[in-house]
């Protein structure tokens, strides 16, 4: 039984006209793109999945009143937008550590972790990127889930955020967005203009799909990190590279400080094993410390043949299951069988 059918079982939703299984399949076909939309709106993979599930349940329950006045996809986006706008009422915006304070020094105490609701969180590509036949559309989709872009979106008022995503990322027309929001075309265009002005400083060229050189860079990074070879790691980092570690506010800028951190407070990462992933349209890794302890989801940014950002998210209890990773790795050195041990 589908997730939708499970959630509405017993509440009368299945009594709507038509075949319940067919309707559930039609709704489920839109889950990935709706999750991507809600993730951009909310900045949290967990909130996005909750919002999409609420969208699906509302659609299931009210399908008899839909009457096909618009496409099913447009109708679902209207419901998802309303769910997100409701969730954003009164909430503080999520951010990255570098959005909140100046860079720290290596000697700065780590301090206490801040609540999960403070941070933009990572998301697996497969949860939010629907298949796109057009390579250009796929590139736009990857860029629009980049952590820096999602963080910038959070600076916009919620309705401006929806307008910009629908117009710039999903390529909806102004009239389509106006209909969805119950607004006018002029109001939509005005909101888009204001949103573009706010985000202008955050625009960046689209990153191409990983080529051989980038793959080689990542292979060298894994080798240097797992051997804990700081000289090799230094050679891979851009001089202005950053290191961040939510839920902690502390973050570092500059390869010298990053390497000093790794040799000091970060020494516990020696002996780690990295499992390749993709997150936020970027290469990523699940990091297990020596002994198989899950430690972080690393999201890597690269440019010009160097690593420009190491973004480590330490909420392993929630994030490792999200990325399909086991809660223990038997051989962090990468030797032996390499078979994961399922978490309890």
From TrEMBL:
The keyword Transferase does not apply. InterPro entries: ECF_Sigma-70_Domain, NTF2-like_dom_sf, RNA_pol_sigma-70_dom, RNA_pol_sigma-G_actinobac, RNA_pol_sigma70_r2, RNA_pol_sigma70_r4_t2, RNA_pol_sigma_r2, RNA_pol_sigma_r3/r4-like. Residues 1-21 are annotated as: Disordered. Coiled coil: none annotated. One of its GO terms (molecular function) is sigma factor activity. Residues 28-93 form the RNA polymerase sigma-70 region domain. GO terms for biological process: DNA-templated transcription initiation. Residues 219-308 form the SnoaL-like domain. Residues 147-199 form the RNA polymerase sigma factor 70 region 4 type domain. SUPFAM superfamilies: NTF2-like, Sigma2 domain of RNA polymerase sigma factors, Sigma3 and sigma4 domains of RNA polymerase sigma factors. Keywords: Sigma factor, Transcription, Transcription regulation. Residues 10-20 have a biased composition (Gly residues). CDD domains: Sigma70_r4 (cd06171). PANTHER family: ECF RNA POLYMERASE SIGMA FACTOR SIGJ (PTHR30173:SF36), SIGMA 19 FACTOR (PTHR30173). Belongs to the sigma-70 factor family. ECF subfamily. Interacts transiently with the RNA polymerase catalytic core formed by RpoA, RpoB, RpoC and RpoZ (2 alpha, 1 beta, 1 beta' and 1 omega subunit) to form the RNA polymerase holoenzyme that can initiate transcription. This is RNA polymerase sigma70 factor. The lineage of its organism: Bacteria, Bacillati, Actinomycetota, Actinomycetes, Kitasatosporales.
């Amino acid at each position: 039984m589908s997730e939708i059918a499970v959630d509405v079982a017993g509440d009368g939703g299945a009594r709507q006209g038509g075949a319940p299984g067919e309707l559930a399949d039609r709704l489920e076909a839109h889950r990935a793109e709706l999750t991507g939309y809600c993730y951009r709106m909310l900045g949290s993979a967990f909130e996005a999945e909750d919002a999409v599930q609420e969208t699906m349940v509302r659609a299931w329950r009210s399908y008899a009143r839909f009457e096909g006045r618009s496409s099913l996809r447009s109708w679902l986006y209207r419901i998802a937008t309303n769910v997100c706008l409701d969730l954003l009422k009164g909430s503080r915006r999520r951010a990255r550590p570098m959005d909140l304070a100046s860079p720290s020094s290596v000697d700065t105490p780590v301090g206490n972790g801040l609540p999960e609701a403070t941070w933009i969180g990572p998301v697996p590509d497969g949860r939010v990127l629907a298949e796109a036949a057009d390579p250009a559309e796929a590139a736009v989709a990857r860029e629009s889930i980049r952590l820096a872009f999602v963080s910038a979106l959070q600076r916009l008022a919620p309705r401006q955020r929806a307008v910009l995503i629908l117009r710039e990322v999903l390529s909806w027309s102004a009239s389509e967005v106006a209909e969805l929001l119950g607004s006018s075309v002029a109001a939509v265009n005005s909101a888009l203009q204001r949103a573009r002005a706010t985000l202008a400083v955050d625009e960046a060229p689209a990153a191409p799909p990983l080529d051989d050189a980038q793959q080689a860079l990542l292979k060298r990074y894994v080798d240097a990190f797992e051997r804990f070879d700081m000289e090799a790691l230094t050679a891979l980092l851009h001089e202005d590279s950053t290191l961040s570690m939510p839920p902690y506010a502390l973050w570092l800028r500059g390869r010298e400080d990053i390497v000093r951190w790794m040799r000091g407070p970060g020494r516990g990462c020696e002996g780690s094993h990295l499992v390749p992933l993709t997150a936020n349209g970027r290469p990523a890794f699940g990091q297990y410390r020596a002994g198989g302890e899950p430690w972080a989801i690393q999201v890597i940014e690269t440019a010009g043949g160097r690593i420009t950002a190491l973004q480590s998210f330490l909420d392993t209890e929630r994030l490792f299951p999200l990325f399909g990773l086991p809660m223990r790795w038997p051989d962090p050195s990468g030797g032996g069988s390499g078979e994961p041990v399922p978490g309890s």
